[in-house]
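Predict structure. Chain length: 314.
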Amino acid sequence: MGKINYLIEVKNVSKKIKNRKILDNISFKIAPGRIMGFLGPNGAGKTTMLKILTGLMFPTSGDIKICGHNIQKDFEKAAFNLGTIIENPEFYNYMSGFNNLQIFADMSRKSISKDDLMQTLTRTGLKGAEHQKVKGYSLGMRQRLGVANATIHQPKVLILDEPMNGLDPEGMKDFRTLMKNFVQHGNSIIISSHLLSELQEIVNDIFIVNQGRQVYAGTMSDFLGKSNNIIHIEVDGDLAPAEKILLNNGYQVTRQLNNLEIATDSTDHDPRAEIARLLVQHDIPLIGLKLTHYSLEDSFLQSIKNDNQQKVNK
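Prediction complete.
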C-alpha cells in the first residue's frame, strides 16, 4: 500500500436503529499527526459513531477506512491500527502495572517482548512504578497505564472517549503531554470529551454532531474563526442611534437586549478606541466597552444553538 494521506476516512455514514436515524450522512477525515475533538451534546450520536469506528457497531450505509483498510471488508487489518480508551480503563487491582500490561500484550496478535513492555511504560511515564500494584495507582497513573495498554501494539490511531474524567490539573497536564508525544510520530487521535477547555489546549481539528447531523468538520482555527472576539457596547438610553452610526461606518453590529455587540479579530487591531471616539463625536452617552474572547466552549454552544434554530426554521 502506498502513502496514506488520511489515517481515518469516514464517508456518508448513516445509522438507523429501529427506524430511528441516529447518524445522518456523516463525513470527515483525519490526516497523520492530527488530534480531532469529537463534540456534541448528550444524545447527539457521538457514542454511536465511536462504536462504528471501533467495529462494535456497523453503519447502515457509508464507508469507513482506517489506514486505507475498509472497516467492513477488512476489519482485522483496520482494527490492528486502532487503540482505544473508554473513560477510566479497568485493570486487575491486585496485580502490578507491568503484569496487567503483560496480560493484554499476550492477547495481542503482535509479538510483544518484555523490552517492548518496558519501553511502553517508560514512554507513558510509569517507569519506576511498573511493579506497584494497580490498586495503589492514582487516577492519573491508571490513565497513563490505559494509554500504555492502548498503544502497546503501536497503533496509528487512538480513539478516546472521555479520557480526562476525574483527572486533577497535574493529571490533565500529563495526559496532554502524552497525546502530543503520540502524534509527533505521525499518528492521529480522536477525543470525545465534555471538557472543552482542555480540548482547546491540544486539538487541531473539530468535528461537531447534533441530533445525528453533521454541524462542522474542519480545523479548530477555522471553527473559532477570525471573528471570535466580541466587543460589548453599553450606552445610556436608546440603542438605535448608536447602532445606526456604527452600521453607517462599516461595523457589523448585533443588537442584544441591553447592549450592542461587534464581532472582530482584535489580535491585529483593537477597534475599541475608534468606536468610542466615533460614538462620543455623535454625542452618544457611552457607558462602557468590553472585549471578550470566544472560547471553544462558547463557539461550540453557539454552533449548536444555530443548528437547532435552523432546524426549527425549516
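Summary: DSSP finds eleven helices and 14 strands in the chain.
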